[in-house]
Amino acid sequence: xxxxxxxxxxxxxxxxxxxxxxxxxxxxxxxxxxxxxxxxxxxxxxxxxxxxxxxxxxxxxxxxxxxxxxxxxxxxxxxxxxxxxxxxxxxxxxxxxxxx
Length: 100
Fold this sequence. Notes:
This protein has 100 residues and is α+β, with helices and mostly antiparallel strands. The protein contains three helices and three strands. The longest helix is centred in the last third of the chain and has 18 residues, at 71-88.
């Protein structure tokens, strides 16, 4: 039984999954295939077979998606890979695309 003058407050909480982003690796004529495989194993945690398969996709198609992650994780992985490429002297290129 409600007492006159009291109000009940409803709180609605909407929880949304974070947007995910695809990490796209681009081919170039200078970055070694071995380096690309190392990045895929060390930073993207691919096994050797998957890393070699993705490297060949990048090489043959010009680009390939190598993983899908929430933005912060995707950006961190890309930044780590690009920093390593810079220290090795490779013009390696990666981009992020929103996953739909």
